[in-house]
Amino acid sequence: MSKLRLRFNPTAFLLIIFFFNSVLRPALALVEDGEGLEEEFTEELLLKPLPDRKVLAHFHFQSSAPPSAANGRHHRLFPKAIAQLARKFQIRELELSFTQGRWNYERWGGFDPMSTANAKPPGVELWAAFDLPLNEIDHTWKNLTHALSGLFCSSINFLESSTAYSAPSWGFHSNSSKLRYGALPREAVCTENLTPWLKLLPCRDKAGIALLLDRPSIYRSHYHSQRLRLISSEFTGIILEQALTVVLQPSMRSNSPASSGYGFLQPSWSVNSLFGKEVVGQCVLAKTSRIFFELEKDLAFKVDKQQPLSSWNNSAFELSVIPNNDIREINAVKNMGSSVLYVFEVSNSNDHMPLDVGIRWKIPLVWSYPQAPFHMNRYLMGSGNERGSIAISLRSTHLLERFSRVSDGCAVHAVIFQVVPWYVKVYYHTLHIFVDGKAQIISDVVRKMKISPSEDKLSPGSMELLLRFPCNIESATLTLDFDKGFLHIDEYPPDANQGFDIPSALVTFPDFHCSRSYQLDDSIYYKSPLLSKFQEGNPVQTYTEVLLVPLTTPDFSMPYNVITFTCTVLALYFGSMLNVLRRRAGEEERLERSKASEKPGLIPLLLSKLFSKLKGKEPESSPPLSTSSSILGPKLVAKVILVGLLAVIWNYYLKNG
Amino acid sequence: MAEISESEPLNPNPDSPGSGASSRRSTMPGTKRLMVTLSVLFPFLAGLPFLLKSTEIYRSPLPFSSIDSLSYRLLPEPPSPPCRLQVVFLRPGIGDSADRLARLISDEVDKRIEGSLTCGSCRRNYAVSVTVDSGNGGCACSGIGEGDPCFWRCGVVDSLGLRNKDEVVDEMLDAALGKGGRCMGSGVGKVYTVLVGESDAQEGVRIVVGKHRHAWVEGNVGENDAALLIANIFIKYFVNGGREEFVAQRKGEFVPVGLDGSVVLSFSLLNADPTDWVYDWNFQKIDEVMLAPVVQALAPVANIQMESQVLYHTPKSSISNWDDKSGGNIFGIGDLPFFVNSNEWHLDTSIAAAGRSKILQFVVYVPSRNECPLLLQLPNGKISKTNGFISPMWGGVIVWNPPECSADSQNKSLIRRTMSPEDLQKIFHVIVGQLRLLFGFKSDYIQDDDMDLINILASEKGFTEWELDVLYRHHACYNLISCTTTLESLSKLVQSLPRMIIMDDIGKQVKYSLEAASLAENNASLGIYDASAASSLQARSLAEDAFFHPSIMSISYSSLEHYFAIYML
Questions:
Q1: Interface of B with A in 186-215 (CB under 8 A)
Q2: Which chain A positions have a beta carbon within 8 Å of B421's beta carbon?
Q3: Where is this region: Disordered (chain B) (predicted)?
Q4: In the 8-state DSSP scheme, what is residue B404?
Q5: Domains in chain A and their CATH numbers?
Q6: What residues of chain B lie within 8 A of the CB of A614, using their CB?
Q7: Residues A42-81, buried b or exposed e (16+ Cβ, 10 A)?
Q8: Are A430 and A407 in contact (CB under 8 A)?
Q9: Which residues in chain B have their CB less than 8 angstroms from residue A202's CB?
Q10: Cα separation of A365 and A264, whole Å?
Q11: What's the farthest any 2 CA atoms get from each other in chain B?
């Protein structure tokens, strides 16, 4: 890059001179921009058979814009929307992933560049590092979530609330106080998120490798993760990586006849059988367009044992297309085999000669993937709606023994980063650590700890722990007790009875860094962002499961009940109050006595009235009633007038109002 | 049933006549009960005003009377900024008749100005002055203009000077009249000058309207004809900006400026099918060289930002047919509504265009090989010269046929080019023309048939000075009217809903909006057109901010019934 920059400076100077020229003489002339500083786009696809008969397809698209004052304003290949986002919110680095399903670390690997970088927790995960003063970051983060949710048709805007995101200091990525992290484990990911993501590619899904992204086959997959990563700086410009990882199950029926006899033969597949589409030529705007077919270390080792793996057609399998190149990993560890990459150039294909990369197996093989040093699990303990505890368990995969003879002083570090919403009130002092089933003193195991307890309705609780275990442990478990909080009635999400999701915890093993370099000359690395990413590598990291915590849900009709009860009480109160004020007990008793002396009784009287009405007869007492009403005449009239007057006043007042 | 039949004979006379008399009470009612009742009632009644006070809603006082007076002042008669016409006769012999000529011309202008009483025109607020410069030191002025630095100084230019090339004359006159700035703040508005010179050539009259605020007439014309011509030029160009009447008479919608006064011009180059050819442009250069002056010129009207992108795989959605006669694929006027393919052309709205600002899309469409050359057919059967069209308030589309498409090449290899500077220049001439159309001017004056005598010099800024004056005047006028109507609606709304909460913010916005509006009015009456346009824009955006304040939107209706239901019951 330094070489490039040196080359750029004279060109920039020329440009300036030219610019002054053109101002003086307002004619447009063309100047070739500095070579190597144009916006670029590459597309790559990595296919890889998995040990459990599934197939992994990893699409990797990379767009880059050189550093320029026009970023965010004028673009050729780079998506304008993203450049504007990076510019407006001063983003240093951003990663957004939409994932459906869970990466199976045991079967699909946990110690290769593929899984460490691309396995993501279910739902949406967003983190961003800003290049802003500290006091502006929270505000910018809120705006960013809204912009992204508009851009990707998703509910990322729920990360706006301060209860939804946290600011990890060292447990997540590097030390940075300008980083914000948020996750929405329950976000449903579907085609409405994929379409805007594809819109950022210059060829969208109209040509090139992205043509394979057939929606039904992608969303049928076992695991599907769509990522967007943005890196921006003054020196490198903006780099946008878009990666889509799917784990597909190839159909079994199209097997070779040998499969009928051999139940364990792996399914043979091709791109067409997986996606229902074929690659017909590259996206013309892509600088490189390649498909890689990878055989994992262990698999390559086993194939090698059958027959030295040299060609694309050997005793173990046969590739459907002749690869343009095959490259081997430069392996540091002996006796573990080295993975093999077959490279297919997409530019050679066209409408008449589609590129349908596939494999036909000839013999059944069983192989495994390199594992992370520990398998992580997280689960809930306890019962009832009041309290419970979270347990994180680490189970050794005996990776360390395979690497080297374990000495006594050997230790392995693990960083646990966990964010818990405020309504799960974790008591961090209840942290217990068990190693191989035996309780440990916390200070023996925990090297470093940063805990920010949750505040009700204000911020989530987050925990960053650096743990140190001896190498030879079998398992370790951490437990934390928590109380379940109460939410306000309108804070419950729809379908509250389903329970609440606690985002995945992230466990990083800083001692283990996985990268993979291949026997290539540097120029191909430069051309292939995917391989250079593999070479760069990542620290090994594992996401745990999402926890589902059932909380006490109120009876949602409760407010109406309360209203009804209150109204009843009020009505009773006022009714009896008025009754007490209006009725005169003494007078009534007197009347009662005088009536009792004349009449048979009130109840027979009322009954007789009722029956006579039921029979449709006029009560015989109509003349006295009419007389009584005539007696009440003036009073009645006065009442009517009063009511009328009130109505008039009311109406008048209303009109004025 | 049996019971009923049984009970019927038992039924006695229910109300004995004596019961009425005996129901009257025999003792006097005690006052104790009355006192208790009253002692409950009285505190309640006494507390009622306090209760009402506590339920009162906060309403920031709005200056209703100022709003009323503003609308009373502006709506029937929008402000007419002053204009000034100066006529210079560069000919000897009519030395004494300056005043007479001035009268003659102002009569002529009077007659014609009736038809152009649109918003933002000078209306009757104009003045005419005549200078007769007889060349050899003789100089006569009609009353008004003497001693003013803006006015013609005799002897600077003579009749012969007008015979140079038009551009040279234009610059010379501009220098002679003093570059606009000198006349700022003179309180009489901009001065428009028409020079009348003589020519040796006998045939006809030549009229040139310059880039600045002047025009000149060459030829031997009589006084009456000259007055007619001058009045025509003044009204048609300097007052109305050369627009057709129907354009000018439409109400202010033609100004595609967002409510906050900003416009984003988004330029997109669409490669319909990149497998045929991929074209690229050097937009930054165009931005700096061609568009920056336009943006600068329009700055008082709108705050303009520019963006560009190149998109691929963007076919149009209408179908074009091959036409042998014109040798190209033809799409007609009827296809235009379907030309823009909103599914595939993701001309994203920009983050820069947040809130209530406006985005104008300019699309350069590069057709694919099988639809190339793509030509727009006008309703009269001719092929459009610009090969583009506009959609008011949305933007414009230009079809650019790459040079490769006529060279019917069989080679299928990918062509990857950058558009040549000449092509770009042509395209952006059309785009500037489209922008002029979107702002309500004619795209250019070449096809001005009825005025074939008149030459109009085009400015490299896209808009000539007198056009900008017209734009500023109209813009200021429409903004003021729109601001007034908005404020009026707000005051009506507020007055009609006594239970509406009005935040202090709204009160402040209304106040500032009124201040900006009166500033705009003042500037307009002083003839400072651009400042008037700028402050009117501010007034309008503040008024809109007040009207669309979120607090109004949230509780715009809380009726009296509601109030009683909440507080009384």
A1: none
A2: 27-30
A3: 1-27
A4: G
A5: 1-36 (no CATH), 38-370 (no CATH), 374-524+543-549 (2.60.40.740)
A6: 4
A7: bbbbbbbbbbeebbbbbbbbbbbbbebeebbbbbbbbbbb
A8: no
A9: 311-312
A10: 8
A11: 137
Q: A275-302: buried (b, 16+ CB within 10 Å) or exposed (e) per residue?
A: bebbbbbbbbbbbbbbbbbbbbbbbbbb
Complex ipTM more than 0.85, yes or no: no
B305 beta partners: B264
Write down the H helix ranges in A91-186.
105-108, 113-118, 134-151
Q: What share of chain B is helix, strand, coil (3-state, %, to 5)?
A: 45, 15, 40
Cβ(B314)–Cβ(B361) below 8 Å: no
**Closest by Cβ to B351, choosing from A147, A203, A621:** A147
For the sheet with B328-331, list strands across it.
B321-323, B328-331, B374-376
The answer to whether the CB atoms of B560 and A70 lie below 8 A apart is no
Min Cα–Cα distance to chain B from A587, Å: 7
Q: To the nearest whole angstrom, how far is the Cα of A605 from the nearest Cα of chain B? A: 6
Across the interface, whether the CB atoms of B285 and A22 are under 8 A apart is answered yes
Mean pLDDT of all residues in A57-67: 93
Higher pLDDT, B9 or B271: B271
A629: pLDDT strictly greater than 50? no
Cα end-to-end span (Å), chain A: 74
Chain B residues within 8 A of A281 when measuring between CB atoms: 275
- What residue in B sits closest to A207 (Cα-Cα)? B313
Structure tokens at A542: 């594992």
What the block records as the tokens of A366 is: 């069983």
The pLDDT score that the predictor gives to residue B358 is: 84
Q: Give per-residue pLDDT as tens, A103-135.
A: 999 889 888 888 888 899 999 999 999 999 999
Contacts of A610 in chain B (CB under 8 A): none
Q: Identify whether the C-beta of residue A393 lies closer than 8 Å to the C-beta of residue A475.
A: yes
Q: Are A552 and A424 in contact (CB under 8 A)?
A: no
According to DSSP, the β-strands at A55-65 and A40-49 are: antiparallel
Dihedral over Cα of A513, A514, A515, A518: its sign: positive
A618 alpha carbon, distance to own chain's centre: 78
User: Average pLDDT in the B1-9 region?
Assistant: 41
- Collapsed DSSP state (helix, strand, coil) of residue A56: strand
Beta strand pairing call for A179-184 and B139-141: unpaired
Number of H helices, E strands in chain A: 18, 26
Alpha helices in A583-621 (DSSP H): 585-598, 602-614
Report the distance separating Cα A142 and Cα A178, nearest Å: 14
Identity of the residue in A23, A199, A594 whose CB atom sits nearest the CB atom of B22: A594
Q: How far, in Å, CA of A204 to CA of A201, rounded?
A: 5
What tens digit of pLDDT does each residue of A441-485 get? 999 899 999 999 999 989 999 999 999 998 888 999 999 999 998
Whole-number Å distance between alpha carbons of A124 and A472: 36
pLDDT interval class at B5 (50, 70, 90):
very low
The answer to whether B358 touches B264, Cβ cutoff 8 Å, is: yes
Min CA distance, B421 vs chain A (Å)? Answer: 5
Q: What residues does each domain of chain B span?
A: 54-76+467-568, 83-249, 260-439
CB contact under 8 A, A611 and B13: no
- What is the C-alpha separation between B233 and B238, in angstroms, rounded? 7
pLDDT at B23: 56
- Closest residue of A to B282, CA-based? A30
Contact present, A350 and A341 (Cβ < 8 Å): no
Peptide bond into B61 cis (omega under 30): no
- Segment of A248-262, A628-642, B236-250 carrying the highest mean pLDDT: A628-642
Under 8 Å between Cβ of B92 and B135: yes
Point out the least confidently predicted range of A144-158, A472-486, B407-421: B407-421
